[in-house]
C-alpha cells in the first residue's frame, strides 16, 4: 500500500523475523501494481560491475592488496535532512490501528544507488584526509 501526501509517496514496510538470529529482521518495501518500485525512483550511478574484471586483474598483479567487508558501511552514511523525505515509510504499531510515519536517516542497503553512494563517500573522505592513498587507489583501477 502507498499513500500520496505533499509530493511524497509513503510506502509500507513488511518485516519478517529471521529465526536463527534473534535480533535480525528482514524488512521489505511494498510495491503495488502499476506503481514504481523504490529502486525505479533513484539514479543508479555508473555501472561498477564493468570494472570487476579490471580490478581482479590488477589485484593479482600487485604485490599488496587490500580487501574489506563493507556490509555495515552503508549504515555509516547519513542522509541530508532535505533528502530524507524521499525515504519515508509507514509503520503500523497495533495492526491497522496506529499508523506512524518514519523516514530513513541513513543510506539504505539494497537500494540501487547505495553502491555508488558508498564509493563516492569513501573517495570524498580519502581525498580530504589521505590524498596519497586516494591517488594510489585511483591508479589501481
From TrEMBL:
Superkingdom in the source lineage: Eukaryota
The record ties this protein, via InterPro entries, to:
DNA/RNA_pol_sf, Rev_trsase/Diguanyl_cyclase
Database matches in Gene3D superfamilies: 3.30.70.270, HIV Type 1 Reverse Transcriptase, subunit A, domain 1
Per the record, the GO terms for biological process are: DNA biosynthetic process
Q: Which PANTHER family match?
A: PHD-TYPE DOMAIN-CONTAINING PROTEIN
Q: What is this protein called?
A: Reverse transcriptase domain-containing protein
Amino acid at each position: 500500500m502507498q499513500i500520496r501526501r505533499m509530493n511524497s509517496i509513503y510506502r509500507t514496510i513488511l518485516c519478517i523475523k529471521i529465526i536463527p538470529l534473534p535480533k535480525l529482521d528482514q524488512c521489505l518495501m511494498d510495491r503495488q501494481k502499476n506503481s514504481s518500485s523504490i529502486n525505479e525512483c533513484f539514479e543508479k550511478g555508473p555501472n561498477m560491475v564493468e570494472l570487476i574484471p579490471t580490478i581482479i586483474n590488477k589485484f593479482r598483479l600487485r604485490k599488496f592488496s587490500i580487501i574489506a567487508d563493507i556490509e555495515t558501511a552503508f549504515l555509516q552514511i547519513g542522509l541530508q535532512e532535505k533528502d530524507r523525505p524521499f525515504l519515508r515509510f509507514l509503520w503500523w504499531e497495533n495492526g491497522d490501528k496506529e499508523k506512524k510515519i518514519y523516514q530513513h536517516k541513513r543510506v539504505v542497503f539494497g537500494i540501487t544507488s547505495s553502491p555508488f553512494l558508498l564509493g563516492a563517500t569513501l573517495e570524498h573522505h580519502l581525498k580530504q584526509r589521505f590524498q596519497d592513498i586516494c591517488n594510489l587507489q585511483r591508479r589501481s583501477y
